[in-house]
Design brief:
Keywords: Hydrolase. One of its GO terms (molecular function) is hydrolase activity. The protein is an alpha/beta fold. It contains 7 helices and 10 strands. It has one domain: Alpha/Beta hydrolase fold, catalytic domain (Rossmann fold). Helix 1 packs parallel to helix 7.
Length: 255
């Protein structure tokens, strides 16, 4: 069979899904295994931010091409995963993905965004698709600000998101994230995949390394965390590198 025969099914849940917590609407899509409607299986789920950049080759900055990656993974026998892509808020993106106060951006709405995911979106997905609903089968991820809000969500909700796919997180925006990482107490084994590029900014890799060090310290102290830190010394802050990292992270987190 060719890779194309394993192409995932992409469904738009709604073009304007209501987010009452933000007084906004967003396009939300589901990326389903190619044979989803031919089986009775239940699948783990990964909630990804910045849906516009995940499988649209015409996206302004390029895309992650997760549809192509999932087809290749499925051909290898690693395609049993549902991905939910939540579009960002365009001009509101930074504010909606910001979970802390920032002197330039003000009081972020990130906590309301995560509240929406936990209270409305996740129950909706679990009722409309055949999902595995437990902690170890529910993941969250994203890049840049999407990576920051995903990390925050995982740290602050240890009983909900068992897997975190954190690419090039915007750690510069607040030192609070380091404090939250230090106080993080996973209820069961948490899997964290952290990626950073060496050419993103002067402070990016040092910040990511600091974050990784805190996580490793917690592991030494006996906290139930499985952690992988991937560094691309030539990596810039760009979709092309997150595209390369995505299938590696999916395999490590889920298979």
């Amino acid at each position: 069979m060719t890779v194309m025969e394993f192409n995932p099914i992409i469904e738009v849940l709604e073009e304007a899904y209501e987010i009452p917590h933000l007084n906004a609407t967003r396009k939300i899509s589901a990326v389903l295994p190619h044979n989803y409607y031919e089986t009775e299986k239940r699948y783990p789920v990964l909630y990804l931010q910045d849906g516009q950049n995940l499988f649209n080759p015409l996206a302004p900055y390029g895309d992650w091409a997760i549809d192509k990656s999932m087809a290749k993974l499925a051909k290898e026998g690693h395609g049993d995963l549902i991905i939910i892509a939540v579009d960002h808020g365009e001009k509101e993106r930074i504010n909606e993905y910001l979970p802390y106060y920032h002197p330039r951006f003000g009081e972020g709405k990130g906590n309301f965004y995560i509240q929406f995911m936990i209270e409305k979106l996740i129950p909706y997905i679990n009722s409309h698709y055949r999902t595995l609903t437990d902690f170890e089968n529910t993941g969250i991820g994203g890049s840049s600000m999407g990576g920051l809000i995903s990390l925050h969500a995982g740290l602050k909700n240890p009983g909900i998101f068992g897997k975190m796919m954190i690419f090039s997180p915007s750690l510069w925006i607040s030192k609070t994230v380091f404090n939250h990482t230090k106080s993080f107490k996973p209820l069961a084994e948490s899997k964290i995949y952290l990626y950073a590029g060496g050419k993103e900014s002067i402070e990016h890799l040092p910040n990511a390394t600091k974050l990784g060090g805190i996580i490793k310290e917690k592991m030494v102290k006996g906290y139930n965390i499985d952690f992988h830190f991937s560094i691309n010394e030539q990596g810039s802050h760009a979709e092309v590198h997150w595209r390369e990292e995505f299938p590696l992270a999916v395999k490590w987190l889920y298979f």
